[in-house]
From TrEMBL:
UniProt keyword terms in alphabetical order: Aminotransferase, Pyridoxal phosphate, Transferase
Matches recorded under PANTHER family: AMINOTRANSFERASE, AMINOTRANSFERASE CLASS-III
Name of this chain's protein: Aspartate aminotransferase family protein
Entry-linked SUPFAM superfamilies: PLP-dependent transferases
Gene3D superfamilies: Aspartate Aminotransferase, domain 1, Type I PLP-dependent aspartate aminotransferase-like (Major domain)
Stated family: Belongs to the class-III pyridoxal-phosphate-dependent aminotransferase family.
Keyword Transferase: yes
Length: 451
């Protein structure tokens, strides 16, 4: 390995970092991570921290998951690649599709379409939604509705349903026909409503209103994350997603759950939709499906949609979408091992218990640090604190303060993620009580340093 100085000096010379200004990468070298063990990461200077980011919400089982590593290695030896385009398949992906069918049975989802990641999964689900309506003779259903603050990926169709201007403006015009309704975000919303249940009802009314305005017969699908992630961890009230399901059903609109973060235990249940008692028509997964060790994803599809495609006699059901790496055997082998470990360890239970500990700890920190304007979480290991320089106006905090907070927290033992004025905490689902205490203590030190 090159030495620390070389790596820091050369980091941003020849590479561009996603979601980062190139000038910023040049001016502020990032933490260069060179090792991972258990739920801890080590940087190029040998500093070790608990990874409170969990990779990027994906390393649910930590960095030492031997069964997944061994499965990848064994599959590389046996068959490192074969496509599943028309005319061929591979054994690993067939086995995986059986396992996913069982895993997603309580969500009513049985068919899988494989991808290389979350943006890919979203792209496929959005395409299949339009195609489903075309097969059924409702070709006018082409629009998509989604939540402001939602994040669904980088491809143009997925970016068009993104609800955050930061991920849109540079690339506009995006796809026409995509419309957004307010998210059930109690800290900031256009209704100035702080009661979560009342806010959920107002957002549902906004959805009804938008459907009436657009015309239900023009809308293909409504897309939502069961708990909004990148937007700053926004858990809706328990009545919200069931309310969305009921409205979609009444208007013949498909419900696509973006479970790229929430599937496989993160919310304290096996999927985010199940957490709210909702059966979506399609569910987009990626990230933790392989514990982040291999780029992979799957769109899970309901029986009802599956049958429409499979029984089509017009030719419109031909799936004219696919990636070279759809059904990659190494990704499939990783996912099989990952699912087995996920279930063997029942990680959802630890996510629920440690998530409660994290949420309670953050609530205590908010009593001590006036900089914390809002604490969100309590649904598994997805939590955030939103910082404000002025509780009356809810103004955000400046970047320098955030950088110092991040650095001091890091020096005190926890890698956290800054997004806007939010500090997001999404550690691996296998964290111990002690790890959560370490994260909270490190954050306390970071907040004290900028108080
Ligand atoms: N949907 C959600 C909810 C996500 O959080 C992400 C990534 N953070 C994506 C889609 C896009 O996934 P990917 O980065 O793997 O393309």
């Amino acid at each position: 390995m090159k030495d620390s100085n070389f790596l820091k000096e050369h980091n941003a010379r020849n590479l561009w970092h996603p979601m980062t200004h190139p000038a910023d990468s040049l001016a502020n070298p990032p933490q260069i991570i060179v090792g991972g063990e258990g739920v801890e990461i080590t940087d190029v200077d040998g500093h070790r921290t608990v990874d409170a980011v969990g990779g990027l919400w994906n390393v649910n089982l930590g960095y030492s998951c031997a069964p997944v590593k061994e499965a990848i290695s064994a599959q590389l030896d046996k068959l490192p690649y074969y496509s599943i385009f028309r005319g061929t398949s591979n054994d690993a992906v067939i086995e995986l599709s059986q396992m996913l069918k069982d895993f997603f049975a309580p969500d009513g989802l049985s068919r899988a379409f494989f991808t290389s990641g979350g943006s890919d999964s979203m792209e496929i689900a959005l395409r299949l939604a339009r195609q489903y309506h075309k097969i059924r003779g409702e070709a006018g259903r082409v629009k998509y509705l989604s939540l402001k603050k939602g994040y669904h990926g980088t491809h143009t169709l997925a970016a068009s349903v993104n609800g955050n201007a930061n991920f849109r403006t540079q690339y506009e015009p995006l796809m026409p026909g995509c419309f957004h309704i307010p998210a059930p975000y109690t800290y900031r919303n256009p209704f100035n409503e702080t009661d979560p249940e009342k806010l959920a009802q107002l957002c549902l009314a906004a959805l009804e209103d938008e459907i009436a305005f657009q015309g239900a017969e023009t809308i293909a699908a409504f897309v939502m994350e069961p708990v909004l992630g990148a937007g700053g961890v926004i858990p809706p009230h328990a009545s919200f997603m069931p309310g969305v399901r009921e409205i979609c059903d009444r208007h013949g609109i498909l419900l696509i759950a973006d479970e790229v973060i929430t599937a496989f235990g993160r919310t304290g249940d096996w999927t985010g939709s199940r957490h709210w008692g909702v059966k979506p028509d399609m569910s987009c997964t990626a990230k933790a499906i392989t514990n982040g060790y291999f780029p992979f994803g799957a769109v899970m599809i309901s029986d009802a949609i599956g049958e429409v495609f499979e029984n089509d006699k017009t030719g419109k059901g031909a799936i004219a979408s696919g990636y070279t790496y759809s059904g990659h055997p190494v990704g499939a082998a990783a996912a099989i091992a990952c699912l087995q470990e996920t279930e063997r360890l029942q990680v959802k239970d630890n996510a629920a218990a440690r998530g409660t500990q994290m949420f309670e700890g953050l609530t205590r920190l908010a009593e001590k640090h006036p900089l914390i304007g809002d604490v969100r979480g309590g649904h598994g290991l997805m939590s955030a604190i939103e910082l404000t320089s002025d509780p009356a106006t809810k103004a955000g905090v400046d970047k320098k303060l955030l950088a110092t907070l991040h650095q001091v927290t890091y020096e005190n033992g926890a890698m956290v993620r800054i997004s806007g004025s939010n500090i997001i905490l999404s550690p691996p689902l296998v964290v111990s009580e002690g790890h959560v205490d370490t994260i909270l203590d490190a954050l306390d030190a970071g907040l004290s340093a900028v108080a």
